[in-house]
Amino acid sequence: MAETPANKAILLIGASRGLGHAMAAEFVARGWNVVATVRGTARTRLHDLADTPESRVEIESLDICEPDQIAALRARLSGRVFDILFVNAGVTNDPNETIADVTTAEFVRVMVTNALSPMRVVEALHDLVAPAGTIGVMSSGQGSVSNNTNGMREVYRGSKAALNTLMRSFAARHAKDSRAMVLMAPGWVRTDMGGPDGRLSIEESIPNVVRVLLSVQGTPGLRYLDYLGNTVPW
Ligand SMILES: NC(=O)c1ccc[n+]([C@@H]2O[C@H](COP(=O)([O-])OP(=O)(O)OC[C@H]3O[C@@H](n4cnc5c(N)ncnc54)[C@H](OP(=O)(O)O)[C@@H]3O)[C@@H](O)[C@H]2O)c1
User: Fold this and answer.
1) What is the spatial distance between Cα 88 and Cα 14, in angstroms, rounded to a whole number?
2) 211 alpha carbon to ligand 1 midpoint, in Å?
3) With CB atoms 3.0 to 4.6 Å apart as the test, which of 44, 96, 104, 180 could cross-link to 134 if both were Cys?
4) Ligand 1 in contact with 91 (CB < 6 A)?
5) With contact defined as beta carbons under 8 Å apart, do 57 and 48 qualify?
6) Per DSSP, what are the bridge partners of residue 189?
7) How many Cβ atoms are within 10 Å of 176's Cβ, its own excluded?
8) Measured between alpha carbons, how far is 53 from 153 in angstroms, rounded to an integer?
9) Ligand 1 in contact with 18 (CB < 6 A)?
10) Is 120 helix (H, G, I), strand (E, B) or coil?
């Protein structure tokens, strides 16, 4: 018999606003239990979602760039089992800034936040994911090396391409893992990061992102997929 949604749980990293918040709302709408993280102690849109009647949202705190905080979250969640772990948190820099312009500090900030830290979260928390569950990370179409024919967003692209490669290495190290793994390209979406010119509204992207995540459950191996479920060339 199929499990009822009430038994399903997602651990969602980086859900204060934007796409992460929308993913939390979408899983709530589908009747899932949601454990989602924000940075710091300020009230966020996730708190508003958690306050709505019937929503099963637990809010945790995590700055993904702080390894001590990752370890503390892992300890607090000990004994819990999740159907999905999804790491959404990410940053960008000035999109026009090329490798010729970027400071070392800015390069390190973007690389550490978008490539190293999501993988540290995956390494630390993946054992909380059920054998038939899914481990997902928010990548970007900009992370595709093959599709990079017009440059721009050089540092951000490099960080997401690095994330993709690190996730492939993780998947290779766990080649016999029964869990599905996904690098997600949500499309260019109008958020604080995507800006007002993005091609998609949050409503056009995120319900599809969630549908794709649910569609791969139970199918082992790593996929790089867009919000419509199409394979993105590496
Ligand atoms: N929007 C797009 O067009 C687009 C396209 C492709 C991929 N993406 C990816 O989708 C993800 C979400 O993007 P978005 O558009 O929703 O961006 P956003 O509106 O700027 O939101 C970014 C989210 O990441 C969190 N975050 C950033 N650094 C963090 C850290 N060190 N620790 C914990 N949380 C951190 C932010 O938390 P705070 O509120 O605390 O800052 C916020 O919740 C990112 O990985 C982004 O690269 C976005």
Assistant:
1) 5
2) 20
3) 180
4) yes
5) no
6) 200
7) 5
8) 41
9) yes
10) helix
pLDDT tens column, 112-154? 999 999 999 999 999 999 999 999 999 999 999 999 999 899 9
Closest atom, ligand 1, to C-alpha of 113: 31
Do 118 and 64 meet the contact criterion of CB atoms below 8 Å apart?
yes
**Cα(1) to centroid of ligand 1, in Å?**
37
Relative to the CA of 192, which ligand 1 atom is closest? 19
Residue 184 CA: distances (Å) to CA of 79, 91, 106: 27, 15, 24
Taking the C-alpha atoms of residue 110 and residue 73, their distance in angstroms, rounded to an integer, is: 23
Q: For a ligand 1 pocket test, name from 12, 13, 17 the mutation site with the most ligand atoms within 8 angstroms of its C-beta.
A: 17
- Return the bridge partners of 223, or none: 182
| pTM across the whole model | 0.97
Cα separation, 206 vs 194, in Å, equals 14
CA distance 169 to 149: 25
The pLDDT tens digits for 46-102 are 999 999 988 899 999 999 999 999 999 999 999 999 999 999 999 999 999 999 999
Closest CA relative to residue 181, chosen from 170, 194, 191? 170
Q: Is the CB of 90 under 6 A from ligand 1?
A: yes
Asked if residues 24 and 57 have their Cβ atoms less than 8 Å apart, the reply is yes
Residue 149: CB atoms within 10 A of its CB come to 6
Residue at token pair 């919000």: 227
Q: Are 34 and 20 in contact (CB under 8 A)?
A: no
